[in-house]
């Protein structure tokens, strides 16, 4: 029977989240609506990243489009897409984007209880050469949405109600946690739906890969330098770890989540707080790591305990397999 070749009972991301939310009697579908707008943003950006419709838009030889406009830069386009999708959901009150200096306070008529922090297109150095890039997002619920202010989003990561990322790679993969484990969904382009393909992701307890920009080694502090040295020259008779570094946080974290190991963006003498942003890079990824059974550490504390003092604050970050992060924690503790 030809129908046997098809899976007919599809677990789409919407169905999955609806199931999850139905466990909370107070839920009225607001989260599901918010998420479906985020999903729309991801699909749009995926299409743009894949250059679908390229010929129609700008002509094959890369001319400007029919209106005579230059194509918008992908990161600018992605930011616009997410802001419009989030505001029109009617479920958000404050948005914080990596692309915008100030928080966006949603107009009163379109306000809802959620606050979304996001990096619409992360991995800027990889955009123009076709290497995997992604969108990262985190979601908070605000107690009072009448007069939202910037201070309302300066919350520790452990207060997030959900976090996720979408990776625009060899396939388009959305990884999500609403605080009850981590699940991955792959976009089926023919259906335009994200289908559950990675149920209940658990990171291996220990990994064989480390991921860091070694070009910064000259400026590293003692514990980071000692840790990376141990990865290459282990003293306990184990095999050295492999190095993998893409330079797109989404892709490096996705690999870490699936294969295990550790991802580091440490602080150093030049940049004591490292590079990555607390609200929309460090927090969502730390939330996912913990939900998958791993850990995330700033060099001082559990990453999700950090309380940011400004929107675009940065922090060093060490995240991944439980045992691997334990090792770096021990090195920082020994330093005192
Ligand atoms: P971006 O926001 O300019 O894209 O920078 C963030 C990216 C992360 O995706 C990645 O982990 C990191 O920067 C790589 O930085 P580096 O090039 O210094 O190794
Ligand atoms: Mg970024």
UniProtKB/TrEMBL annotation:
Pfam families: FBPase, FBPase_C. GO terms for cellular component: cytosol. Keywords: Carbohydrate metabolism, Cytoplasm, Hydrolase, Magnesium, Metal-binding. Residues 11-197 form the Fructose-1-6-bisphosphatase class I N-terminal domain. InterPro entries: FBPase_C_dom (IPR044015), FBPase_class-1 (IPR000146), FBPase_N (IPR033391), FBPtase (IPR028343), Fructose_bisphosphatase_AS (IPR020548). It catalyses: beta-D-fructose 1,6-bisphosphate + H2O = beta-D-fructose 6-phosphate + phosphate. It is found in: Cytoplasm. GO terms for molecular function: fructose 1,6-bisphosphate 1-phosphatase activity; metal ion binding. It comes from the Eukaryota. Gene3D superfamilies: 3.40.190.80, Fructose-1,6-Bisphosphatase, subunit A, domain 1 (3.30.540.10). GO terms for biological process: fructose 1,6-bisphosphate metabolic process; fructose 6-phosphate metabolic process; fructose metabolic process; gluconeogenesis; photosynthesis; sucrose biosynthetic process. It is an enzyme of class 3 (hydrolase). Residues 203-332 form the Fructose-1-6-bisphosphatase class 1 C-terminal domain. Its cofactor is Mg(2+). Its EC number is 3.1.3.11. Belongs to the FBPase class 1 family. This is Fructose-1,6-bisphosphatase, cytosolic.
């Amino acid at each position: 029977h030809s129908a046997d070749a098809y899976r007919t009972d599809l677990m789409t991301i919407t169905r999955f989240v609806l199931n999850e939310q139905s466990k909370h009697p107070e839920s009225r579908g607001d989260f599901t609506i918010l998420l479906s707008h985020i999903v729309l943003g991801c699909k749009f950006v995926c299409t743009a990243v894949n250059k679908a419709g390229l010929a129609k838009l700008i002509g094959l030889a890369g001319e400007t489009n029919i209106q005579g406009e230059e194509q918008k830069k992908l990161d600018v386009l992605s930011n616009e897409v997410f802001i419009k999708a989030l505001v029109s959901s009617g479920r958000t009150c404050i948005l914080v984007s990596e692309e915008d200096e100030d928080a966006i306070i949603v107009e009163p008529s379109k306000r809802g209880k959620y606050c979304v922090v996001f990096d619409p297109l992360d991995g800027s150095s990889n955009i123009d050469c076709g290497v995997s890039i992604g969108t990262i997002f985190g979601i908070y619920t605000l107690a009072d949405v009448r007069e939202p202010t910037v201070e309302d989003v300066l919350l520790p990561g452990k207060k997030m109600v959900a976090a996720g990322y979408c990776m625009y790679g060899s396939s388009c993969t959305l990884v999500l946690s609403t605080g009850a484990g981590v699940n991955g969904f792959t976009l089926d382009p023919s259906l335009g739906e994200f289908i559950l393909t990675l149920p209940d992701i658990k990171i291996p307890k220990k990994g064989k890969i480390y991921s860091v920009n070694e070009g910064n080694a000259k400026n590293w502090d003692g514990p980071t330098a000692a840790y990376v040295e141990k990865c290459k020259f282990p003293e306990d008779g184990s095999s050295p770890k492999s190095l993998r570094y893409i330079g797109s946080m989404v892709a490096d974290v996705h690999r870490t989540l699936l294969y295990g190991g550790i991802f580091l963006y440490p602080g150093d003498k030049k940049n004591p707080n490292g590079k990555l942003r607390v609200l929309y890079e460090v927090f969502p990824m730390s939330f996912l790591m913990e939900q998958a059974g791993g850990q995330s550490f700033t060099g001082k504390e559990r990453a999700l305990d950090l309380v940011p003092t400004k929107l675009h604050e940065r922090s060093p970050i060490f995240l991944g397999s439980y045992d691997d992060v334990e090792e770096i924690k021990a090195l920082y503790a020994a330093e005192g």
